[in-house]
Amino acid sequence: MSISNVNKLLNYMEAVLERAKALPLTRFVFVDKEELLELIDRTRDVLPKEIQEANTVLKRRDEIHREAQNTAEQILSEAKKEAARRIEENEILKDVKIQAAKIKEDTNNEREEVRKKTVSECLDLKKRVIADAISIREGADKYAESVIRKLVNDMSEVQSIIVSGQTQLSKLKENSEEQIAYYKSIAENNDVLLSRE
User: Fold this and answer.
1) What confidence score (pLDDT) does residue 118 get?
2) Does an H or E element contain 58, and which?
């Protein structure tokens, strides 16, 4: 897995919110909590693999060191063979020894430069990967928290609307009962007056 996979999971979270059903007459939506939590867990599962990739790069550094050592040994071996063929010629032998020493020194210097550069690049890469992984994890956590907090606020507002509606219905019911009682008393008074006549 790569960081792009983490981004895909975050994009999918966004898509879940985009296609969520809207609550009528409000700006709120209904979200499948289990689906959203599953996406968050999958994102967290990906992050350790990013760190493993950094460790793989560090292992490659050791392989490069071994390859450089093998190259140096091969060059020295070839120089020795060349010197053996010219053992009878002292001047040439001296030249070969000088060249072999120079090649060895140059190779060692080059190997050391490659080693330092590789170590530096590997450490930088590991830091970047870890920083990206931490940033992505923090971003995912913050995003999930904000979504859940928004859902809680939305539900609180819906509950307030429902309670308000229930209160208004109760008041209407009380008013209706008072009006019915009033009209009944008027009807009873009319009946009494009619019976007296």
Assistant:
1) 92
2) helix 33-85
- Whole-angstrom Cα distance, residue 59 to residue 11? 33
pLDDT tier at 114, thresholds 50, 70, 90: very high
Q: How far is CA 140 from CA 16, 29, 52, 144, in A?
A: 14, 20, 20, 6
Report CA-CA distances (Å) from 72 to 80, 92, 106.
12, 22, 9
Q: What interhelical angle do 90-196 and 3-18 show, nearest 10?
A: 10
Per-residue model confidence (pLDDT) at position 1: 46
Lowest-confidence pick of 4-13, 31-40, 58-67, 80-89: 80-89
Buried b (16+ CB within 10 A) or exposed e, 154-185: beeeeeeeeeeeeeeeeeeeeeeeeeeeeeee
> How far is the CA of 78 from the CAs of 74, 102, 120, 153, in angstroms?
6, 14, 32, 77
Whole-model pTM: value is: 0.30
* CA dist., res. 113 & res. 107, Å (int): 10
Ranges of each domain in the chain: 3-147
Longest Cα–Cα distance in the chain: 160
